[in-house]
Amino acid sequence: MYMMTISVAEARAQFSRIIDSASSTHERFEVTRNGNRAAVLLGADDFDALMETVEILGDSILVAQISVGLGELDRGETESAETVSEAMIRAGRLSQ
């Protein structure tokens, strides 16, 4: 994944533009101080997605369930959206 590298001075001078870009285009910025990595700036939505991914990958049971589901998908063991909707309505988990 591409990440633009900028200095602290450049980040400071263009902070508002960088925030807008990270938020609207999902661009990521690696901020350096004296040529060394110091921080990474990314949009809030990207950060939230990253944290959700870390949480999912930290749950071995959930990862196993996802693996089972992907296997079922590969084998064509699926149900139509209509069938799933009907089952959810019968179970009281979805209103008509």
Architecture overview:
The chain has 96 residues and is α+β, with helices and mostly antiparallel strands. It folds into two domains: 4-44, YefM-like domain (YefM-like fold), CATH 3.40.1620; 59-90, no CATH class. Helices cover 58% and strands 16% of the residues. The chain has five helices and three strands; from the N terminus they run E-H-H-E-E-H-H-H. It has helices spanning 8-13, 15-25, 44-57, 60-74, 81-90; strands at 4-7, 29-33, 36-41. Strands 1-2-3 form a three-stranded mixed beta sheet. A hairpin with a 2-residue loop joins strand 2 and strand 3 (36-41). The protein is elongated. The mean pLDDT is 95.
Kindly identify the CATH topology of the largest domain.
YefM-like fold
What kind of oligomer do you see?
A: single chain
Q: Write down how many β-strands occur, each being a DSSP E stretch of 2 or more residues.
A: 3
What do the pLDDT scores average to? 95
State the CATH superfamily name of the largest domain: YefM-like domain
The proportion of strand residues reads: 15-25%
In what order do the strands lie side by side in the largest sheet? 1-2-3
> Any idea what the shape is?
elongated
Query: What is the element string, with H for helices and E for strands?
Result: EHHEEHHH
Q: Number of folding domains?
A: 2
N→C terminal distance:
42 Å
